[in-house]
């Protein structure tokens, strides 16, 4: 009886520790960062701000600053946890809720209004944490990926599932068939909130959410008849909450509660990008032209911001600079690293311990909250054991 009570309480406390520590530290970080503008904070709290020209297709904000693109108007979208730009429908993004909401996702216009609601047939939704959109290199069809990869106990599930759905051609409510792929990590189960798909190879990657996070590569060919093994190919910043590939494959971005890091290849950091102050930063995606990032958060009526990329991270530049864009990149992409462990290991060694630009004081704060939650769990376990 006692073990059952502990099992019921542990997830609650684990979730509490994560939900409190992350936003508190993020708030402190953005408050003390000069690059987070007052105008951005004003937009977050609902004051009027010029919208500029942007959108999911591109056109970076004219002043080069983050801008409020829209707010979700649908009351059913209360915990937006994943975000992806449609490869085929102009000015349409997709999102889904966190755990407890069922296997649904929403097509949303850049005015924040829901255009259609879709149910993924046969899917479970233990803890959906991320999604991605890509074009299947083999068929040329656009597909959506939904990742049931959250695990606040870092080993509470025997395996994890990611569902692949063909992007609907018509935006009207429907139930869609899906292909389910099951996964396990080669080095032990863990919590994760980010996935990304290489636009050229179609290879899938999972980014774990840990103090010493990692990028994991899925097999080049996914199997439905057995569990697929995820293998570590690179380190990731502290507490990564999402990830995405640039449309041209020249770079990828990893989002944390604090900022976003753009990489040319594993261990090859291009730049860090300051993010707007958000309640609990959960999602990130590239615009269709790859010149800006979209980022969102949980909460009712939550905002989605468009953040212009610095020049060094723009398409072409990210691939190696203007004079080298036509040449093969000397660095190793995640997909290449997965088949060259010696090179991947050297990249990992070069950048292990990446703190994502987080001040040491905030790391200490976060650890304190996490340890406090662990202490409470231990006390409860002793009393009911």
From TrEMBL:
Signal peptide: 1-21
Keywords: Membrane, Signal, Transmembrane, Transmembrane helix
Chain segments annotated as transmembrane: 363-381
Keyword Membrane in record: yes
Superkingdom as given in the UniProt entry: Bacteria
UniProt-annotated stretches for the region Disordered: 30-67, 316-354
Comp. bias intervals (Low complexity): 30-41, 316-330, 337-351
Protein name as catalogued: WD40 repeat domain-containing protein
UniProt organism field: Sphaerisporangium rhizosphaerae
């Amino acid at each position: 009886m006692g073990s059952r009570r502990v099992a019921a309480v542990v997830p609650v406390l684990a979730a509490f520790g994560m939900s409190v520590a992350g936003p508190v530290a993020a708030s402190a970080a953005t408050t003390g960062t000069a690059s987070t503008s007052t105008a951005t904070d004003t937009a977050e709290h609902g004051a009027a701000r010029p919208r500029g020209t942007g959108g999911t297709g591109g056109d970076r904000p004219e002043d080069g600053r983050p801008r409020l693109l829209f707010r979700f108007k649908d009351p059913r979208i209360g915990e937006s946890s994943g975000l992806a730009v449609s490869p085929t429908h102009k000015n349409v993004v997709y999102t889904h809720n966190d755990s407890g909401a069922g296997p649904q996702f929403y097509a949303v216009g850049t005015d924040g209004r829901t255009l259609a609601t879709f149910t993924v047939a046969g899917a479970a939704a233990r803890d959906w944490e991320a999604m991605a959109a890509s074009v299947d290199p083999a068929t040329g069809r656009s597909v959506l990926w939904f990742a049931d990869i959250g695990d606040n106990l870092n080993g509470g599930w025997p395996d994890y599932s990611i569902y692949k759905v063909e992007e609907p051609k018509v935006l009207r409510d429907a139930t869609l068939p899906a292909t389910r792929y099951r996964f396990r990590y080669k080095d032990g189960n863990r919590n994760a909130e980010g996935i990304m798909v290489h636009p050229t190879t179609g290879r899938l990657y999972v980014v774990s959410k840990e103090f010493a996070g990692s990028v994991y590569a899925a097999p080049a060919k996914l199997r439905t008849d057995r569990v697929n093994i995820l293998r570590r190919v690179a380190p990731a910043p502290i507490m990564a909450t999402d990830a995405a590939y640039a449309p041209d494959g020249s770079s990828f971005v990893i989002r944390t509660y604090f900022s976003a890091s753009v990489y040319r290849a594993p261990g090859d950091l291009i730049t860090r990008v300051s993010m707007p102050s958000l309640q609990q930063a959960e999602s990130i995606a590239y615009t269709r032209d790859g010149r800006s990032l979209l980022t969102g958060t949980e909460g009712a009526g939550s905002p989605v911001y468009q953040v212009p990329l610095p020049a060094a991270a723009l398409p072409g530049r990210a691939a190696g600079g203007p004079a080298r864009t036509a040449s093969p990149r000397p660095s190793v992409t995640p997909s290449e690293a997965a088949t060259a462990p010696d090179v991947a290991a050297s990249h990992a060694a070069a950048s292990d311990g990446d703190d994502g630009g987080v001040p040491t004081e905030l790391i200490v704060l976060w650890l304190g909250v996490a340890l406090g939650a662990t202490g409470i769990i231990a006390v409860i376990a002793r009393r009911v054991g």
